[in-house]
User: Which sequence fits this backbone?
């Protein structure tokens, strides 16, 4: 019975030990960039053997690419300013969000003006709620009041993103 009284004290001590070993970051939140001759790579290498598609190529026949590994090049139009965990590549009309799933992180304060990126990963289309769409807008510093109702998100679950020079 006297050991049961000590149990809460033991649990508190163990929890302090466990939490003191955690630096407060989620797994993968360290920015690891690899400088290449043509740009900066985040995540794994882009497959040089695979055909590089444009955003327009994907939009021309989305059903041909759903669930497939793709390499897409586009102009960066947004970045997650909260955590560096996604970018949007665009052709000026259409866009695709490249999500890192926190497997790797890019600098959230990166200047994206005039920069192009090559993204590799699995393409899909997902309907997101108004709340989710507003969350993405908020993370990129956009006006959330412009979002109404569910949104269709064209996305790539990225394994690698190269920001071109």
Assistant:
């Amino acid at each position: 019975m006297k050991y049961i009284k000590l149990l809460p004290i033991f649990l508190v001590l163990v929890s302090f030990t466990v939490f003191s070993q955690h630096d407060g970051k989620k797994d993968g939140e360290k920015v690891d960039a690899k400088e290449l001759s043509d740009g900066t790579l985040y995540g794994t290498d882009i497959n040089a053997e695979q055909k590089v598609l444009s955003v327009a190529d994907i939009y021309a026949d989305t059903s041909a690419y759903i669930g497939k590994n793709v390499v897409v090049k586009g102009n960066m139009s947004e970045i997650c300013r909260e955590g560096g965990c996604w970018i949007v590549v665009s052709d000026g009309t259409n866009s695709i969000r490249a999500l890192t799933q926190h497997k790797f992180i890019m600098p959230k304060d990166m200047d994206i003006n005039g920069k192009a990126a090559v993204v590799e990963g699995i393409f899909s289309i997902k309907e997101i709620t108004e709340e989710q769409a507003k969350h993405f807008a908020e993370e990129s510093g956009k006006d959330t009041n412009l979002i109404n109702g569910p949104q269709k998100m064209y996305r790539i679950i990225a394994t690698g993103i190269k920001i071109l020079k």
